[in-house]
Design a protein that fits this description.
The complex is a heterodimer of chains A (about 210) and B (about 210). Chain A has about 210 residues and is mainly beta. Chain A has two helices and 13 strands; from the N terminus they run αββββββαβββββββ. In chain A, strands 1-7-8-9-10-11-12-13-2-3-4-5-6 form a 13-stranded antiparallel sheet, with helices on one face. In chain A, about 30% of the residues are buried. A twelve-stranded antiparallel sheet of chain B has the order 1-8-9-10-11-12-2-3-4-5-6-7, sandwiched between helices. Classes of the chains: A mainly beta (about 210), B alpha+beta (about 210). At the A-B interface, β2, β3 and β4 of A face β2 and β3 of B.
Amino acid sequence: MILTSCLPIAIGILLGCSPSYKQMQSAVADVHVLQKFKPAFTVALYNTTVDVVGNHLSGLLLIKKMPDSSTRMVFSNEMGFSFFDFEFKPDGDFKVYSIMKKLNKKSVIKTLQHDFELILMNNLDNSKAVVKTNDGLTYFIFPQSKGYNYYITNQTGDELVRMERASSKKTIVEAVMKNYQNGVPDTIGISHKTFEFNIGLKRIER
Amino acid sequence: MRKTIFLMLVLVSGLFAKAQYPGYTAVTDLPKFKASFAAAAQKTNSIKSDFVQDKNLSMLSEKITSKGNFWFKKDSRVRMEYTQPFKYLMILNKDKAYVKDGAKESKVSTKSNKMFQQINKIMIDCMQGTTLDNTDFKTRVFENKTSALVELTPVAKGMKEMFKSINVIVDKKDFSVTSIQMQELSGDNTIMRFTNKELNAAIPDTLFDIN
């Protein structure tokens, strides 16, 4: 009896299936289709809005691929004052060069780090990827140190419908990258599901 | 003896100033400079100008350039409108601030928002010639033939966490501000240059309306 009631929970934890992913079926698909959705940043500037629990921030996010293959992200307000300067290494290492005092909290930095890692698509270990399908969509699931990153494409694998960051229980973040121009998305949206925290990026031609 | 020490200090500070700001020397008669600045500002009731802003990201070897229009009108009213490569409008009207980024409009009281309070104070002080009286900063003044450089080093806690220094370059001809340079702690800086300045141009009050 105990075994019977615990079994679905245990399977859920093992497979990382949250209640919303319950309907998913195992599938076979080439995980390499995701490669074309990985943003090919050289230097890109985005008009940026951040809405966080009733507060609205706006500014510019500069994303630059450095000669050592790391990616730097600098967010500043329109008048030039920097909010943060982050570095993402291809092997998953992360460094904070600067951050304004108000944002300098471990939880804020971790949240931003994981959100941007989801869209940078660095360090995706194909050997650990699990492929599933549901509702005509293909789910490429990558286990992370905590939870999972989902990259969800249409069945033919030519459109990245959305990305999700989830715990074993629920969706934490949904993100989209749209209108790619030369491998760089024109529009990026990141939306948290557990509290009000939304980031919107719209590319600016300089 | 005292005279000798004083002379040495002046010389040393002069050398230091030269090293720090090439072409500039320390202003020796600060009260005179202050009086001239305030007197010129007294005669300026409004300023209409274009501006070009460069944010220099030193470690990334990148520069973000933006452009726009600037209006100032006594008392304490500023309108800054970025037009390229993005649209952003900021109006400061006494203790109120209005911001429009994209379609989003927000109004804040500068009394409750520290950042806007500081922006407001710096902008208004620069335009009204009261920069040297701002107790949030330690000030030093340097000059060359045509310009004066007012170096503002934050002493107030909030500003110290944001800026290493803010340098205001003033045209000695009319004491109008030609550029504002904000040095961040990270080594990055933002330089805002004012061009096509019109002093005492007719500017409608409605430009500063915050409804």
